[in-house]
Amino acid sequence: MIELDTHPTGAAVVRVDGRLTMVDAPAFRSAVAEAVGEAATTVVVDLSACAFMDSSGLGAVIAGLKAARQAGGDLRIAAPSTQVLTVLQLTNLERVLRPFGSVAEALRAG
Amino acid sequence: MPAELSLRAPGVPASLDDVHALLSRAWDRHPDVGDDDRMRFEIAVVEIAGNVVEHAGDPHPVDFELAVRVEDDRLEARFQDPGRRVDVDFSTADMPDALAETGRGVALALATADELTYRRVGAVNHWLVLRRRRP
Description:
The structure holds 2 protein chains of 2 kinds.
Chain A: E1 2-6, E2 11-20, H1 25-37, E3 42-53, H2 55-70, E4 74-78, H3 82-90, E5 99-100, H4 103-108
Parallel strand pairs in A: 2-3, 3-4, 4-5
Antiparallel strand pairs in A: 1-2
Chain B: E1 3-10, H1 15-29, H2 35-56, E2 63-70, E3 74-81, H3 105-112, E4 115-121, E5 124-132
């Protein structure tokens, strides 16, 4: 399940509850597009409840990163599980999608 | 006798949830399988399931079958589907550029499985995902 929480400060949190695979990737893309469309400059993807991500889910996160950057903002991921960290390592994306320890930390990063 | 679990499901994205559920049942039966082996095998199996769904779902969804075996020394998943032929070249399945949105599935499966094979037999696609269990 994907939840979007937009903050009045210009940030938005997209929370992934469960898995982010081919099943939920379209809903994730829509949530990020909505956040960027509402002028959120910082989109934080809360992965603390995401148990599993596949390459389709990762592709949706990359699409969100590009959309946020095109709008002059940024996308950050927070609290990834060991499985998500493993996928980031195996795909050499740890630097492009640098994980933050928590949503609060990702929001604070400026 | 080694235990085998299997399913038959339509070639649509929602069937990935059935694949996860099947693996979860396998781990319940075999609590001795280590966390890292489970995680990496699941990554490989779900990537191939995604590939099967893409091919078995075009132009009309057809059913695919998955059989998972947990043996003392290895984990095996065998997929079969009557979808269209898959063009896959394992020797060139490298990770794409960082900002690519697709094209990581087979590379991710190769990085987490010890053996990955694809065969077309008659009008049926056969995939084997094998991971040797670490001590």
